[in-house]
Specification:
Shape: elongated
Number of helices: 6
Largest sheet: none
Strand content: under 5%
Order of helices and strands: HHHHHH
């Protein structure tokens, strides 16, 4: 942050705590909405956050919400929304990778989500192909 080097360590620590508290409150507020609005709220918040150090937490929340939405759609065999949600997970994961420089606990959590999304995306694609094949080859 600009001007941070001119301030005391206590001031910087208090500022970081305030940012973290603001991010946590934003995530809690967003969780009260349906997932599409929740993602929109978090994306809008990210656009207005000036400190890159706070953004990975928000991107992790977006990836988590999208992953859960995809899994939920997959359990109801709604393959197209499931695949879309899984596909949309990649951008926040890549942003986490970029912002954390592929280190730390947030990056590790993002990798877990990424692996989970890869597995579920493959499953959804296979199940969709099976369903399409069953529809095509059904005899009258």
């Amino acid at each position: 942050m600009i001007g941070q080097t001119c301030q005391s360590a206590a001031w910087i620590s208090k500022l970081d705590e305030s940012f973290a508290e603001c991010v946590d409150e934003s995530i809690s507020l967003a969780q009260t909405f349906p997932y599409t609005i929740q993602i929109e709220v978090l994306e809008n918040y990210i656009q207005r956050v000036c400190e890159d150090s706070q953004k990975p937490v928000l991107f992790l929340e977006i990836a988590t919400v999208l992953s859960q939405a995809g899994i939920s759609a997959l359990t109801t065999k709604d393959f197209i929304p499931a695949l879309q949600a899984f596909h949309d997970c990649y951008r926040p994961i890549q942003e986490i990778r970029r912002l954390t420089r592929e280190t730390g606990p947030l990056y590790k959590e993002a990798r877990v989500i990424e692996n989970d999304v890869d597995f579920h995306m493959a499953t959804a694609s296979a199940l969709q192909a099976i369903r399409a094949g069953q529809c095509v080859f059904q005899l009258p």
